[in-house]
Amino acid sequence: MARSDKFTLTQKKYTIYSDFLMNFDKNPFTGYLAVATNEEAVKNSIRQLLLTNKGERFYDARKGGGIRDLLFELFDPLSMEAIKLDLRETIQAYEPRAIVHDIEVVGDINSNELSIKIIFGVQNIQNESFELDLHIERVR
Predict the structure, then answer these.
(1) Could you give the number of structural domains in the chain?
(2) What's residue 101's pLDDT?
(3) Dist. CA 91–CA 105, nearest whole Å
């Protein structure tokens, strides 16, 4: 005889995305590693993905944003659109938790700086958008 509750509808579970913090801080209350959840976890992941150079990861040489290489390019409207397209494709390929709504790129040719603003949503949070601001400049 089969149980009737085995075949009832299941409730949809709320997915919580979590990642460890990059500096491996401890939670002061539990003593375990501190975690970033939902939008903060996705922001940190996108930031690390875009700041990683292509070829820097051991087992996936294509993974990374490669935006540091773009600091030495001439910034014209065509190259800005190419940067936007490349960043969008990188995020869609390697960060499935994020839904990219818009990317704004502003380049300064005199000081070799890029300002990037990414507006995105998170898969498990409906009708909200979040912003990630990156400012990349040449150090040397």
Answers:
(1) 1
(2) 94
(3) 15
